[in-house]
Specification:
The protein folds into two domains: about 80 residues, Winged helix-like DNA-binding domain superfamily/Winged helix DNA-binding domain (Arc Repressor Mutant, subunit A, Orthogonal Bundle), CATH 1.10.10; about 140 residues, Four Helix Bundle (Hemerythrin (Met), subunit A) (Up-down Bundle), CATH 1.20.120. A hairpin with a 3-residue loop joins strand 1 and strand 2. Helix content is about 60%, strand content about 5%. By secondary structure, it is mainly alpha-helical. GO terms for molecular function: DNA binding; DNA-binding transcription factor activity.
């Protein structure tokens, strides 16, 4: 799609192939080229049908795909709106998995997280600034306060890890890892209906911070592995 004389991107008709996939790609391109932001309204369903020369069901299938990713939302009587930027280069994961296969999905995602998260800890240890350390420690202190008060601290735990990802100064770490966590957003609120899920990992968040503060990448990797190993053990044990 290229901009016309009015600098507004043009959505062009598609050749006959995988229509739903092509509509998804075309919409992603449109959002990127039009520089739409969160809260902006997408073209109406009829406009998309006419522009792309596809049927209503194909448009709705593409819309459902983006809804499942948490990228857009449809407001009754108002239209479809962008919740977060999207492009073909952006990696998106679904917000939830079938509860029947939740255990397997959690373990599969953990396998991917282990490599990325360990690397994030090591990079953070090398690149963290003084300001980064202040922010990470603030999040850690709040996590510890809530944990000691309530026995659990899911949102505060996430805030701590996001601060570590930010300390890498590579936005892809946060994008990838935040979406992996968003995928299981509901699960993390009440994991297996247990308040003690991954509780044993609590002390290693402080030692992870100490490793990052000391600028020790290998120690940061080791402490990250301790946290993730406990998460894996609890997933296996509590999902029996």
């Amino acid at each position: 799609m290229k901009a016309n004389s009015g600098d507004r991107p043009v959505i062009r008709p598609l050749p006959v192939m995988d229509r739903a996939r092509q509509v998804t790609d075309a919409l992603a391109d449109y959002v990127e080229e039009a520089r739409l932001k969160a809260g902006d309204r997408l073209p109406a369903e009829r406009e998309l049908m006419a522009a792309l020369a596809v049927g209503r069901s194909t448009i709705r299938e593409a819309i459902r795909h983006f809804q499942a990713l948490g990228v857009i939302e449809t407001r009754k009587g108002s239209g479809t709106y962008l919740l977060k930027p999207v492009s073909r280069a952006t990696i998106h994961m679904p917000r939830s998995f079938d509860a029947v296969h939740l255990r397997d999905a959690l373990l599969q995602t953990l396998e991917v997280r282990r490599g990325i998260e360990c690397e994030a800890g090591m990079v953070a240890a090398r690149r963290r600034t003084r300001k980064d350390l202040v922010i990470i420690e603030e999040k850690l202190n709040e996590m510890e306060r809530v944990h000691l008060e309530k026995g659990t601290s899911g949102p505060e735990d996430l805030a701590f890890h996001l601060a570590v990802y930010d300390a890498t100064h590579n936005p892809l770490f946060r994008q990838l890892l935040e979406q992996m966590r968003e995928t299981f957003e509901r699960f993390w609120e009440h994991p297996f209906d247990r308040q003690d899920f991954a509780r044993r990992s609590f002390p290693f968040h402080r030692t992870l911070f100490n490793a990052i503060a000391a600028g020790d990448p290998e120690a940061a990797r080791a402490e990250t592995l301790k946290i993730l190993d406990i998460v894996e053990e609890d997933i296996k044990e509590m999902s029996k």
